[in-house]
């Protein structure tokens, strides 16, 4: 393994290349510009193609085109740009095309703030576009995790023939940390040759389109997709459970918020307070069982910590808690960052109030 | 051991590259480090701030409210962040650009006129190298050998005279820092 001190955006760009990405199209927006900047010189080095599209809409449709040829394609943006790409992402899902989309999120709504925030949970997990489709949503907390998830994202995308979303905030996009880079993957057409346009071969016909299907056919497609999503819940949930065994209070946090919360939890543990954490790594499929299976005879409260106000993950949490204990929330938003002291205070106020 | 450093000043003062250099050097010394930049939408100038954490153990949270050491390269940065230094912490001041004295008694102060020193050596752009030198000289956060190696690596692709000048700036900084060992 090769160790480097890298910036978040550049680390995931390199991980994408090593994971087989050979096409990128995107349109600039802070705080993710280092991804296209890096890929603009890196992709040509490996025989790939980089396009700065004339818009977000054009870029996502170029990704659609590249994906239809079985090429591992990527686009990246931040909240406002992801909204513009929503139509194209829905079309990818409809045409059953694999692609990876990265959202380095910032303060919202609207144009919001260019500073980091976790303001796109609902967009990512509930409706990345119209029509009721789902994508897997990976939410790394460290750059190493971001590298590992990005590196393998196309395997999921190609297995399911569905887009995959990687959701990080501007802090993780800009931060520099040590990462171990995995080796270059051998490119293979194994997962794509029975459908991609590049490998029609002896097949008579192939259409990678998002058509107006006859109603029964569209219903069948939707049922098939429904089974795929259901399958994720059984096989693909990724979660970190931290100090839950004896926990009386359980923090639920993902990404950068989870790192700040973990530090606070470590400090509270030193003071003897029994606090643990559930950190969803896949926001979709959501780690339902981790929350459902808590021992509610012991747990006195759940604390949802997010770098957004109001908390967006709360509904998913409450669906699993089912009223068995109170759910609290704490956050900062609009580009105001969570910090160790604020999170410590928020958790300790709730914990000490319950004493 | 875990220490946090906030480098602050305005765009163009080499805030980010100083922070990256310190973090990189720590990594070279087999420590763990994170570097987190914060800046506004300006293409030139504007305020610049970065947080560097150096630790013997894996770093959990890279976001910290208070820092062990604040490096203030101008008056605005000093005014904005001097309240965020931990009790017993260190303030490193660019006294060429910060006129205010420290009004907190619980903080050690290392005042170095890094702009003037860099100008005397030939180029004000090296102020951040002088500053890094002063920080290394005054504390034991990274070794002199390691920071010299980082500087050499950083300027390896540039003209040899640029490296030579920066090396002088670093040496001068270390000398000034050592005089105020904290």
Question: Could you explain how this protein is built, in words?
Answer:
The complex is a heterodimer of chains A (355) and B (182). Chain A is of the alpha/beta class. Chain A has helices at residues 8-18, 34-45, 56-68, 79-94, 121-126, 143-160, 170-174, 215-235, 255-270, 288-292, 314-321, 340-353; strands at 2-7, 23-26, 49-52, 73-77, 100-107, 113-116, 136-138, 164-169, 176-181, 239-242, 249-252, 275-280, 282-284, 301-306, 327-331. Chain B is an alpha/beta fold and 182 residues long. Chain B has a single domain (2-179), classed as Pyruvate-ferredoxin Oxidoreductase, domain 3 (3-Layer(aba) Sandwich), CATH 3.40.920. Chain B has a six-stranded mixed beta sheet, with helices on both faces. The radius of gyration of chain B is 15 Å and the shape is globular. The model of chain B has no long low-confidence stretch (mean pLDDT 93). The A-B interface holds A 5, 30, 114-115, 171, 174-178, 256, 259-260, 262-264, 266, 337-342 and B 20, 23-24, 27, 32-38, 40-41, 59-66.
Summarize the structure.
The complex is a heterodimer of chains A (355) and B (182). Chain A is of the alpha/beta class. Chain A has 12 helices and 15 strands.
